[in-house]
Amino acid sequence: MHPRTAQWRRLFADEAGSERPDLALLCLLIGTEADPSLDTTDLDMTRRLLDRLAAQVAQAVSARGTGAAEDPRSWALAVAELLGQRYGFKGGPGVYQRLESSLLHEVLRRRRGLPILLSVLWMEVARRAGAPVHGVALPGHFVVGFGGEGGGDDQVLADAFSGGRVLSATDAALLVAAATGAPLVPSMLRPAGTLDIVRRILNNVRAWAAPRPERSEVSLWAIDLSLLLPAPNARLHYERAELLVQRGDYLRGARELDTYADAVAAEDAATADRARRQAHGARAMLN
Fold first, then answer.
1. Which of 14, 95, 126, 142 has CB atoms 3.0–4.6 Å from 133's, for a disulfide?
2. Which residues neighbour 181 within 8 Å (Cβ) at sequence distance 6 or greater?
3. What tens digit of pLDDT does each residue of 32-85 get?
4. Where in the numbering of this chain does the Protein SirB1 N-terminal domain appear (predicted)?
5. Are 217 and 98 in contact (CB under 8 A)?
6. In sequence order, what DSSP letters do the residues of 137-196 get, joined into one string?
């Protein structure tokens, strides 16, 4: 573990447990796991860049005239014109095959990323500029909402992955149908919470690493961060144990299996017993 990692993880846990977690900071702290060379100066520079982009968006909205700041569509178009058109932030070929597509500092550098990371960029710039903005976790495709939340009449959806294209109701329904084969329902348009967004990003990191056993350390740190979020799923302890055992760290893997067994024993004694037997087997590998 890099000397700064423990410090970053304490900050991540503290921020995740705060009353109003800072989405940009949490995303940047995820980046420190992938790139241990990042330091406080790098994080500060990245946040200042977000501030500068926000100032340009605010200026563009102001130039649109009286009432533009109260118009969600004006905000959506202003952010799209700046980030999508002028600076070229959008999706592209191969983004799903790159870990960098899930790291905010790399998305800012490469101007390419997954839908959820580009949406985070849109949201953080727009929020700093004063826009009423939120994330919308459509099944299979994350987008940005401006204005009314939860599908209200004044809610405007924008697809950051396509450069900020404003979506009609039909566009949004087609995105959902393509991902699930089911119709869009109003509950899908509710704002995504900050911690839900962070969990989804970490799940994407784990999905990237899963078919790459040579990058098991990425799966491990993604699980470690997920466990630092409030109310983590106990199953994460089991998945962490599996990774540790696969990496030859039998003792820590056994301890993690015991932790998982303790967490599920009250509700599922059979599963807890199996986990304890696996822990015994892992310890036997040390002999």
1. 126
2. none
3. 999 999 999 999 999 999 999 999 999 999 998 878 888 999 999 999 999 999
4. 47-203
5. no
6. EETTEEEEEESSSSS-TT-EEEEGGGTSEEEPHHHHHHHHHHHHSS---GGGGSEEPHHH
